[in-house]
Each structure stands twice: as structure tokens, then as C-alpha cells.
Task: structure prediction
Amino acid sequence: MINKVNFKKGDNVLVISGDDKGKSGKIVSIFPEKMRVIIEGVNFLKKHNKPSQKVPQGGVIKKEGTLHISNIKLICNKCNKPTNIKRERTKEGKRVRVCKKCGEIIDKV
Result:
């Protein structure tokens, strides 16, 4: 069963808990099965590589790790504040994401 995720690739989000609390960035990828996201420039992990044909010198590589969806909040484009999201239907019947603080439509779902 795939869980419902209120975030989209490219959304600007703020980290609200953990080691990177207070940092913000854009969502690079989403894993709805695991309820996790990768955010650009946040939660770097170090991976140690042995020398091989692909990586002849080996060494330590820094890459972005995943964060749980409960640890991030969307930053609204209009009010520029971290906010929760609610889903509503427009008069035409289309589903949209709406900022709970200012009521602005974020984009179409």
C-alpha cells in the first residue's frame, strides 16, 4: 500500500527536527513507500569506497541522505512561512493544495 504524500518534487521545504533543523532546500526525490524524501543540500552522509575499476582512487564520498516526511514542512510561496497543507476542490472540481496559514492555492494536484 502506498501512503499519501502531500509533497511534490521541486517543493521548497524547511527541516523542523533533527540535526539539520532550520535548513531549507528543494525536494530532489520522494519515496512514498517509505515516507521519506531527499532534500538538496540537507542531511549529508559519508560513504567510504574501496578502490575499484569504477573508482580507481577510492576515498570518501558525501551524498544526501533521506529524511522522514514528518520532519519537514512546506514553505508557502506567498506568505514565505513554513505551513501545513490541506487539500480542497475548486469550483471546477480539480483538487488543489492550499496553505493553511494564508489560504493561497499552492498548485494543482
